[in-house]
Design a protein that fits this description.
The chain is an alpha+beta fold. The chain has 11 helices and 12 strands. α1 packs parallel to α2, α2 packs across α3 and α7 packs antiparallel against α8. Bound molecules: cytidine-5'-monophosphate (C5P).
């Protein structure tokens, strides 16, 4: 029986700006999304029902898991049976690194291969958008400007040779709906109406971050990075604010997505390792997980194993 093995990468946000509230209740965003080498490994095997297994105890294995939902959506859409999904978790969980979205994207990409569906990448992304706003980006990977609710993607060149240190308190999880709702409660009076969004987006596209990415200058990228959600997460989670402050002493640092992971940009693996070591020394809390990775120009990588 054929099976499929996939690498499903993490992402960080180099920019997350909230423009306003959409008619569908989501926020209109301008983001830059960046894939990392740090990846989960997913194994898919044909099965009568959907079954999900994961080697990380914090990951739910029921319908609340986005990979499970992706398998259910694919089965319903194409009238197929189930699949056995095995996830080897390397991406920090509930971290703002799109681990769940990336796993869902891998299931969609993998079932397209296993079931010989012949779907194009835009078709896979359209299916992914039904599962979550970050899933279409995870299907494609690399580096992209993301607008709309995050599902409208313009790929851009991935800057070469940028390394990252990621740090997350393992027991801490920030709910994404909570982060957006809290932001709305506090900042709705500043929201622009839909007519103002295209000009705001154009303004961002000509601004320094996009230029810094084009030049591949990690210091300039670091100086121009921005995440609106820091404004609500930091006051509620002071230890995350402190972590950002500490990492920022050694390299440009920011929170990814709705957090609570903080990442710092570095020029080399040696610098990343040295910063990781420094943070470990400064915060000797065993709950603090630290990972070292680098930007990736790729996305999901699939290999079919003949039966
Ligand atoms: O799309 P996804 O299910 O990943 O989004 C999770 C939650 O994040 C949404 O239910 C919503 O509360 C918030 N969100 C938002 N605007 C977006 C993306 C997400 O308000 N563009």
């Amino acid at each position: 029986m054929r099976s499929c093995t996939l690498l499903a990468p993490a992402k960080v946000n180099l920019h997350l700006e909230i423009l306003g509230l959409r008619a569908d209740g989501y926020h209109e965003l301008v983001m830059i999304l960046q894939c990392l080498e740090l990846s989960d490994r997913i194994h898919l095997k044909p099965n009568d029902t959907i079954s999900l297994h994961c080697d990380h105890s914090q990951v739910p294995v029921d319908q609340s898991n986005l990979a499970y939902r992706a398998a259910a959506l694919m089965g319903q859409t194409f009238g197929r049976g189930g699949v056995e999904i095995r996830i080897e978790k390397n991406i920090p969980v509930a971290a703002g690194l799109a681990g769940g979205s990336s796993n869902a994207a891998a299931v969609i990409v993998g079932l397209n291969l296993l079931w010989d569906l012949g779907l194009t990448q835009p078709q896979l992304q359209e299916l992914g958008a039904k599962i979550g706003s970050d899933v279409p980006f995870c299907v494609a990977g690399g580096t992209a400007i993301a607008t709309g609710r995050g599902e409208i993607l313009d790929p851009i060149q991935t800057p070469n040779g940028i390394h990252v240190v990621l740090a997350k308190y393992q027991s801490l999880a920030v709910s994404t709906p909570w982060a957006y709702q809290t932001y709305r409660q506090q900042y709705e009076q500043n929201y622009g109406d839909p007519a103002s969004w295209p000009a705001k987006t154009r303004q961002f596209l000509s601004a320094s971050l996009v230029q810094a990415i084009a030049q591949g200058n990690y210091q300039a990228i670091g100086q121009a990075m921005h995440n609106d959600l820091e404004k609500v997460v930091f006051p509620a989670y002071p230890q995350v604010a402190h972590l950002r402050q500490l990492m920022g002493k050694y390299a440009p640092a920011m929170m990814s997505g709705s957090g609570p992971t903080i990442f710092a940009l570095c020029a080399s693996p040696a610098q990343a390792e040295a910063i990781a070591q420094e943070i470990r020394t400064q915060i000797p809390d065993p709950d603090l997980g630290i990972w070292v990775s680098q930007f990736s120009a790729g996305g999901i990588r699939a290999s079919l194993n003949p039966g």
